[in-house]
Amino acid sequence: MLGYGGGLISGDVIELNIKVKKNAKLLVTSLSTSKAFKAISGRKSTVLRTNAKIGKGGLLFLAPQPLQCFGNSVLTKETHIILEGGLDSRNEKDDPSLLLVDWYTGGRKNLDGGLWQLDSFHTTTTVSYSTSRSLFVQTDESIEEDGNAISGVSCEQVFQDATRLSGGKGLKHRMRDYNIICMVVLMGPKVKEVASTFMQQYASGRTYDDGGQDHSFGTNPLKKMDFNTGEDMYRVVDEGPHVSCGTFHSCKEGRCRQEGVVVRIAATTLDVVGKSKAHMSIQHYYWMYRSNRLIIHFSLMRGIANFLSKHIGTLDGQLSHDPFL
Questions:
Q1: Are 159 and 250 spatial neighbours (Cβ–Cβ below 8 Å)?
Q2: pLDDT exceeds cutoff 80 at 225
């Protein structure tokens, strides 16, 4: 996807409709972050809406770059995924597969009064099963494909995630030093091995090691994170991100076969996988010379991207391109 000009302003409504046909594979990414600017009084909020349907045996790898919510922005983001057939098929290989990366940043550290100064950010993600020939969830306006109107779809929801943030001192205090929040959803046979790896490493107390070794009681153990709730989030080595991983059952009419996996990542520092400046390219040094703020933002995303590249990459060669490189 190309960028939305210089950024998103009040009243912008962007709707992306995706259809992955039977046994097809589609990677959707973007050239840069989607930037939401300060809301304009009297105008409606900014809306980003993605509707997707994945056919039997298909794979959708939805991994655009993060949303960047600038100070006083008002943004609503909706992502609705429909899995066609799924549990109706007799062969598990015919099930649709999904790998979704949904991440956002707190804005600009050195502008707008600092991070997490947005007015309002609301993001909703749903995953549903359907056997209907209809394509997209119903919206306020009709959607057309190949000249034919597409109606609302009858489906059964198996996953929903929603976050609502309000900026200012309260949000800044609660977010602490975390600059990027990321959620990864994995479902289906084509992402099963990657999902299993996440569960093995981050649903237990194992140590993440950049060299690929498991030192369960090594010098850099995963540290359980206590946010006064006892949630199971584990710290990647050194100053890396906190990672949490869990499963959810995707059932339809009492029948269960697929098991979805949700990974949550919260990043605090620039080089979240222990990368030093020695690993930076000539281009990185160039941009550091041109703009200190720009390289700080790029480095922050680069660290998270390295983490996702190591664990997801091309899905063991299923795709020819690694979107996180």
A1: yes
A2: no
